[in-house]
Amino acid sequence: MLSPRFFDYIKARQELVNKALNYYVPLLQDFSARVTEAMHYSLFAGGKRLRPILLLAAAEAVGGKPEDYLPAACALECIHTYSLIHDDLPAMDDDDLRRGRPTCHKAFDEATAILAGDGLLTLAFELLAHPDLRARVSAGRLLEVIYLVAKAAGIEGMVGGQMADLLAEGRPVSAEELDFIHQHKTASLITASVVAGGVLAGASEAQQQALKTYGKAIGRAFQIVDDLLDILGDEKIIGKPVGSDLAKGKATYPRLFGLEASKQKARELVTRALESLQLFDEKADPLRDIAHYVVERTL
Amino acid sequence: MLSPRFFDYIKARQELVNKALNYYVPLLQDFSARVTEAMHYSLFAGGKRLRPILLLAAAEAVGGKPEDYLPAACALECIHTYSLIHDDLPAMDDDDLRRGRPTCHKAFDEATAILAGDGLLTLAFELLAHPDLRARVSAGRLLEVIYLVAKAAGIEGMVGGQMADLLAEGRPVSAEELDFIHQHKTASLITASVVAGGVLAGASEAQQQALKTYGKAIGRAFQIVDDLLDILGDEKIIGKPVGSDLAKGKATYPRLFGLEASKQKARELVTRALESLQLFDEKADPLRDIAHYVVERTL
Question: What is the least distance, in Å, from the CA of B96 to any CA of chain A?
């Protein structure tokens, strides 16, 4: 269903984001150089740049130019990458591989990995208040974005989700708990990426609500598909051993509801995401394509 | 030299900050409750609230009302506390005690401590963009503060300083390297606290420069005195065994230059801090008293 045009679009956006990341994330040459090397190592480990691309696509959907919002797009990739580095630590999920390469604490060491995560998280907020962004977006909109991104990344979002995920390991979880984990750990930052793009480009209240519904739906779908890939996927594609979530006793959607119900749920969520975009014109087509892509990578 | 009035002032400000921290740092009751318990455990472990008080005192010095800037004051304490939690981790300084109590990862566990730090750091930026602050401070000033605080906390500040500090452990360091560590690890966030207070309350360019000079000087003095306390101090006052920096082979000012030269340097820095405040009237007296306090706690 996805056109070659979509893959060209994604590739062009990835290049835009990668160039911006290289520009906005410094490689320092002083006594602290090592931590910036570790940040680059993890930032340029083959990530798909889903969150930055969602931010840019949402900005486009309301008439914005992607080039105007690159520091914000980079900020979201920094937050996503920090969360992966910290989640992989021995005290957390204890993963040695990420996208087929040694994780940050394996390639460097634990202390450097903790600091690389801290550095990326802090840099994200520096970028959201960066003069280059201030030159293009009103201060009021930027504060709104900082507030919603911080909420989505923090204890009421990603951090809270990772805590709940760790506490759920190795024991049965309820549907309510699993939904809490998915919503906090994955969907909240994806939703924030989409809404942030809209706010930056001046979305109306109704448009922001629609983008939020879209973000929540594809965020949940994304997590369910991720869990499915852990069971059905190809180790080369997912970059870690198939079945590693299952082996750890991680709470997953297919574990609780089975494969077929999970696929069905992911498809429903994509339909909901597409419906929420009805008030947008063809400038929202990249968002529509991304919704299809989220499930088609496996189903 | 310090008057009882100063200690009343400090006590009143500490109470103001503690009340605000209780209000602005939530104790969640959901599946992620544990991470917020750990955040509170470390936030309310007897910290002196130096950074928030500096922010409020700097705001007062340029005519602001402290009550207007409490979310920003709390943000700085959140950043300071996160840095202590992460620095204490086994992979970093591996400390079991902090201010006489078990460190966060000892009282909880490593994963929770990492997440508590991440949660506090993220919350700091949420608070700097908080509606309560937006109701009192222009969006442009708040963005300026977010940018300078993020820079001071990140790889060009505290995170870079901790990286350099770890890399310097157990080997001789040059005066240049030690200065880098002090400036990044301690002085940068202290300086940012002072400058942020000024910016929030509308300091002129000249006033901001003066506050920066003041902050850098007391920040460096503070670190030197801390190092001195590690040698001369009372375990009950410093909350960790005397000599623990020396035992770890940590780079310190007295180690490199000796006790007398260190005391002399701290006194010189306080004089510089006081001189930088000459363009302020008596509303800057709390800042002056704090400068004295920084060295008098030991010399």
Answer: 16
